[in-house]
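Worked example 3. Consider a protein that binds magnesium ion.
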Amino acid sequence: MTGTEIAKERKAAVSVRALSKTFGQGDYAVTALDSVELDILENEFFTLLGPSGCGKTTLLRLIAGFELPTEGSISLQGEGITDKPPHRRPVNTVFQSYALFPHMTVAENIGFGLRMLGKPTAEIKQTTERMLALVQLEAMAGRRTDQLSGGQQQRVALARALAPAPKVLLLDEPLAALDLKLRKNMQLELKSLQAETGITFVFVTHDQEEALTMSDRIAVMKSGKILQIGTPRDIYDRPTHRFVADFIGDINILEGTVERTDGYLATVRLRDGSMVSAHLGTASARSGNVSVAIRPENVRLAGAGETPTLTGVVENIVYFGAATNLHLRLGTGEEIVIRNPGAVDEGKYQPGATIGAIMQPDLIRVLE
Amino acid sequence: MSDRQPPSALATAIANNRRSERATRAWLLAPALTIILAISILPLGITIVYSFLTPGTYGGVTWEFSTDSYVQFLFQRDIFDDTLVFNSAYVSIFLRSIGLALGATIGALILGFPTAYFIASKPREQRNIWLFLITLPFWTNLLIRTYAMLLIIRDEGIINIMLMKAGIISSPLTILYTDTAVFIGLIYSFLPFMVLPIYASLEKLDFSLVEAGYDLYANRLKVLFHVIVPLAKPGIVAGCILVFIPALGAYITPELLGGGKKLMIGNMIAMQFGASRNWPFGSAAALILMALVIVVLLVNALAARRGASNNG
Ligand SMILES: Nc1ncnc2c1ncn2[C@@H]1O[C@H](COP(=O)(O)OP(=O)(O)OP(=O)(O)O)[C@@H](O)[C@H]1O
Ligand SMILES: [Mg+2]
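Given these inputs, the predicted complex is written out as structure tokens:
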């Protein structure tokens, strides 16, 4: 099932239409977002993924209402919120720096949103206790926030943003400040919190592994534009752009020319003369020079008697336990990596040896 | 000997060394101690001593112990039967001064907080210009500035001329030589003392906390009172103390703008050393003023400690 198919089945929690944001004017103008179209669905764990400066935070701040768009509109469950101030949007943010109020206790921090909404004291107390239990900080209720560890502060920030039961929760790199182990734990905790509360999460990260493990769907961004939206498998197995393919995981990219097309398949002549058939996907280039991509784990060593797709000279063999990477230099000067599960026969595969590789035909993609 | 008893020789050496170190330290401390002694302890001592003496006929004191000065602050001695009758004159001057100083503090806070917030919200490179403008009046003598204020608010001053030209009033407002004039003058004189500490604490304020406030359904006013003001509290308290204390003891402002008719503590004390020729009473009044200030500072210190232990 592709991302667009899912989008048709469920209602959109956040819809973004032709959204642009430019900071500054004249020579100093920076276009942080450029005509972004996006539908984030109800109950979805949605991730914005992209390199530093691509506009992830800007998009999140526009949804939260901290910035106003230069152009375009944002709606929440069908209701236009483009011009509403942040305090009138049922959307809460978990800030990267946590932004916990230092003059309040943990419990006061968590109850703040409900207090500002004018909820009765009994309800605030009850919800605060429920939230403290949810993030396992019951014992810390009366503590000041600067007496907490990073992970605990992170959980208070989460509880504070979840307490008013927002329609959408925005998280801007919430795990960036944590060490690796805590980070892995919090990834799981976040994921289960999302499932438990049923609240739509919009999560920002520039860590592709984090995005792949946590998300229902991912939007990959580059220079203010969304390049591809899809499930982690869509993004990983069927990248549409060279940038997406490169940014997520390892990938081999080869240049070639389209010979002919047949429906969604293209026959591509690679530079060394070999012919491969590749999925066109949504690529607009249907003729001429194209790039094709394949993951290292989808390239295997040619066995005896098999006709290899490509031949090259082994340059490097990198063993890392579960797999071995063989770096192959092709006759054209291009390099590909073969990921072989487990170790390889050291007698046969050595730097300098000429070997054959087979690309799994249905896993080659033409890139935009 | 040094062979037989090396430890004791060493000990002596160390002790000598320590002694000389201590001597050096004493010499290094001397200038600071002299200054503290000369400018704070000595005058204070003299004031305390004078307050317990008897006034001389032509000013100065006669060396005769008396607590009359303190008694005089609250009571009047009946000339006929020598009984003490409560006299509210001086107490009311003190109360008036406290009232004016409090009013000026509140006024300075109301004007100073938005000013400080305005400066803190400017881009970093513009802030120094605004701070410079705020402190600019300090480059002129307070006396001159107060005279300038006098020219502005007098009956034929700029304010009245403009209001009359605009047709808002038909006859000039009498501001000069009223409490209002003193009040305006005090605010004007001490406003920077309010702005600067508040600015210092607002400048450190993490703006994402303000955004977190808005995000959690607080409108502008609620963010102001639930997030910004509590976080700027140290600056607000410092500003209030820095305005209240000098306003309480102000001399020039009430003298010029109040026309010397309506006294504040400062004028009353000055008068004892001048026309009234009652140095002991002047000293006593000065000490009572100081006691008042110390009480204010103590209350603040206690409140701060209670706040800290509440949080901690
Ligand atoms: N307030 C601002 N004024 C001017 N330019 C800004 C402002 N905020 C963001 N930008 C610019 O907009 C672009 C996108 O910034 P944004 O913070 O959204 O990136 P990001 O994807 O969140 O990056 P990172 O991963 O580093 O957090 C950047 O080029 C940035 O310099
Ligand atoms: Mg960012």
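Take a moment to read the result before moving on. Residues 313 and 354 of chain A are 4 Å apart (CA to CA). Residues A 23-24, 30, 32, 50, 52-58, 206 surround adenosine-5'-triphosphate (ligand 1) (CB under 6 Å).
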